[in-house]
Amino acid sequence: MKRDVVKKEQEKKDMEDVVEQDKLVEIRSKRVPGKLEIHQNGIRYQSPLSTQQRVDILFSNVRHLFFQPCQHELIVVIHIHLKDPIIVGNKKKTKDVQFYREATDIQFDETGNRRRKYRYGDEDEFEQEQEERRQLGFHGVPFRSNVFIQPTTDCLIQVVEPPFMVLTLEDIEIAHLERVQFGLKNFDLVFVFKDYSRAPYHINTIPMEQIEDVKDWLDNSDILYSEGPLNLSWPTIMKTVTADPHQFFQDGGWSFLQQESDDEGGSDEEDEESAFEIDDDDLDAASESSEEDSDYGSNVSDEDDEDEAELSDDDEGDDWDEMEEKAKKRDRESGLDDEDRGRKKRKH
């Protein structure tokens, strides 16, 4: 008995500095860790909190499925873009459902140097390969923040930061590049869909250094594009299109976007031509000087003709044989004259 009493007193003494804590308040965010399962005709996400909290997605309703590894990001993403929206969570309909898992790079080796060498033997080459894959992408602002946008075979996507962006290329009718001017650092990109009831999609503040890459991508994707120096009023344009689409295309359709680009180029050419225009007075002075130059040139040409004529007359002499005979004849005649003069002197 005494031993038990001493033991209890000792335990009580040891527990004197222990304070009773308040009840823990759990943080339950929208992104609850759970389990993703694949089944015969779809996939199921099961929440660990309750068996009733689950999301089922049928393959027949999947339009695009993207897998994005943790390239320059700390998450691995499986993003599903649906054909028809579904209800998820708090009774909001959505066409984009994403499953992700945080991933961190292994900085220490738990199993020996062999595994680390196998994975980290060519870090520079691996990073260079990843950079080449990302060269097709570009930065822009589709909503409020500047994000990295990447083209795929069938889409243009941004699935890292919400709100997500998934544009199907076959739904796009035309693309227009706005604010393409010399001196500006950024331009905007507008996509007009084949379904005119959808509002045009804007991607703003794309660096001007990437405009040629964007044009090449649009060209390789068989998307008609145009460019202009100003931002257009697309609500007004789409209102005109939806009011009477037949008349809109009878009047030229989207050709006015291309004409805007041509007019811009034409104005530049006119500016260049106007720089070489001269006044009428300068034109008259130039014509008079040209006439004086022509008179001077004619006089010089006449003198040259006379000199050439003289040279031609001299050049038209006899042959060498004829000239030699004439010289001998002259010598004989001069010899006879000298003899006659000598005889006359003797007679005197």
UniProtKB/TrEMBL annotation:
Give an example GO biological process: DNA replication
Q: Where is the composition biased (Acidic residues)?
A: 260-324
**InterPro entries reported for this sequence:** Fact-SPT16_PH, FACT_SPT16_C, PH-like_dom_sf, RTT106/SPT16-like_middle_dom, Spt16
Q: Superkingdom of this entry's organism? A: Eukaryota
Looking at the record, the residues that make up the Histone chaperone RTT106/FACT complex subunit SPT16-like middle domain are 138-228
Its primary localisation, in coarse terms, equals nucleus
The segment annotated Disordered runs over: 257-348
Composition-biased stretches (Basic and acidic residues)? 325-335
A Pfam family? SPT16_C
GO molecular function list: nucleosome binding
Question: What biological function has been recorded for the protein in this entry?
Answer: Component of the FACT complex, a general chromatin factor that acts to reorganize nucleosomes. The FACT complex is involved in multiple processes that require DNA as a template such as mRNA elongation, DNA replication and DNA repair. During transcription elongation the FACT complex acts as a histone chaperone that both destabilizes and restores nucleosomal structure.
Q: Which family does it belong to?
A: Belongs to the peptidase M24 family. SPT16 subfamily.
Q: What is this protein called?
A: FACT complex subunit
Q: What is the lineage of its organism?
A: Eukaryota, Fungi, Dikarya, Ascomycota, Pezizomycotina
